[in-house]
Amino acid sequence: MSSKIQLAAAAAASAAVTAGAILSYQRLQKETELSRLKQSIPTDPSSSSPSDLLLPRVKRNGPLPKPDKEDEHNRLLAERAQNGDFDEELILEQLARNRVFLGPDGLDKLRNAFIIVVGVGGVGSHASTALARSGVSKLRLVDFDQVSLSSLNRHAVATLADVGISKVQCLQRRLMAITPWVRFDLRLQKFDGSVADDLLGPWQDGQKPDFVIDAIDNIDSKVELLKYCYDHGIPVISSMGAGTKSDPTKVMVGDISESTDDGLSRATRRKLKLLGVASGIPVVYSTEKMGEGKAALLPIAVEEFQKGSVGDLGPLPDFRVRILPVLGTMPAFFGYAVANHIILKISGYPIDYAGGKARFKLYDATIAFLQSSEEKVVRATTAGGPDVAHGLRVPVTQGDVEFLIEEAYRGRSVVSDLPTRLVLIRWERPAESTLVQIDGQKSSRLRPEELVCMTKDEAARHLKDVLLGGKALGEVYSGEVIEKVEATRKRIERYARIFWAGF
């Protein structure tokens, strides 16, 4: 019996040793394969460290890997168009809606523009497509990645036939069938600071970029790109995170200093601040809050860690190893917001964006100030004692305040033209009581054309002198100010008739 136990123990020990040897061999084989794979990626010849791995610096202007008859037809048409053998009237007819909207001069500026798009995935592909369709004639597309099946839920133009080819080549392949006159400069590269001079440099004819689009989803590369553009005075707009977002009404365009609710923006902003850049870069971001039941970035599964170190799991050093939840529609909203900003900027079209988070605080403070001033006016014009205005509300929403301050008064005081500490206040002293009661709720009868935009100090004096003191407007303000108010009030009337018809 003892000999059998000894034999079994020996067999178990032998099996354990054998299993350990097999696992060690498999681990060594995996490490060898990983090392061989990394060594197959060309290194930068100027680098002193062989571990500084870079993608090959290649321009992909050659033939498509899988061309078909339609590709060949489109290529020949593009060749003719770019050699001047394409009717200018046909181009203008295709761009007719843009020309009417932007004007001939605005469209000419757009057609002569040179735009660089860094990252042509979900956001970048939609931005590039919109720019090409709108008339931009020179596009440099920068991306190291290929079209995959998972790209098709959000890419602007990719089809199943494009899976496996580079994203930059996919965009050229599809867009030359839409806008054959557009010239493309394709760069199959990963952006970093070492290649910034080349990738963000002039066009072949020496023209400097009119705008750069940052649609990169890697924070370090993003920061390097934005810092380079900031230091070299290159106009740039950055797209922040569309991943995990679902509410298109929360997509904003504003300065990077305002984008406090966006995770990618927050991380980018912090790193830029360490480099001395706190503002001055326009970004597209979302103010949407995460909540229960909404998509979120999940942690890496334990079994993934068991495959190797996190750095070994990514396709490139320092790149993400998780699939980011993305609703296919949201990158399009971000991409078109980016393209829209560039089109307006280059063509010289007026831009009046809604305010960011700080402006929303301004709108709330304005409503509070307006309610306080209306309480005083009601007390002054209504019999009934000091409690007559108790619980008074004003029929004004944050959207009304935003419209009046940002659009009607262009974000400036009608008195001094100052843009700081703005509020709204009634312009004329009412001839009779403005108090109304609806279902027991006290409210002030107030229409948008009766409000003017002033600084808080100016409004306090206006309340004291005009609304409560009884002074005539001509005693307090110049004829120029009064004329400006009357002209603005007329512009508000149409809005007032539609939106405030019930008051």
TrEMBL record:
Q: Where is the THIF-type NAD/FAD binding fold domain?
A: 97-366
The region called Disordered is annotated at: 34-73
Instruction: Enumerate the UniProt keywords alphabetically.
Output: ATP-binding, Ligase, Membrane, Mitochondrion, Mitochondrion outer membrane, Nucleotide-binding, Transmembrane, Transmembrane helix
Where does this protein chiefly localize?
mitochondrion
Q: How does it sit in the membrane?
A: Multi-pass membrane protein
Ribonucleoprotein found in the keyword field: no
The protein's matches in Gene3D superfamilies, at most eight in alphabetical order, are given as: NAD(P)-binding Rossmann-like Domain
Localization in the cell: Mitochondrion outer membrane
Query: GO MF annotations for this entry?
Result: ATP binding; tRNA threonylcarbamoyladenosine dehydratase; ubiquitin-like modifier activating enzyme activity
Give the record's GO biological process terms. cyclic threonylcarbamoyladenosine biosynthetic process
InterPro entries the record matches = ThiF/MoeB/HesA, ThiF_NAD_FAD-bd, Ubiquitin-activating_enz
Q: Which domain of life is it from?
A: Eukaryota
Q: Name one GO cellular component term.
A: mitochondrial outer membrane
The entry sums up its family as follows:
Belongs to the HesA/MoeB/ThiF family.
Question: Which PANTHER family does the UniProt entry name for this protein?
Answer: TRNA THREONYLCARBAMOYLADENOSINE DEHYDRATASE (PTHR43267), TRNA THREONYLCARBAMOYLADENOSINE DEHYDRATASE 1-RELATED (PTHR43267:SF2)
Function field: Catalyzes the ATP-dependent dehydration of threonylcarbamoyladenosine at position 37 (t(6)A37) to form cyclic t(6)A37 (ct(6)A37) in tRNAs that read codons beginning with adenine.
Q: Report what the protein is called.
A: THIF-type NAD/FAD binding fold domain-containing protein
Q: What is the lineage of its organism?
A: Eukaryota, Fungi, Dikarya, Ascomycota, Pezizomycotina
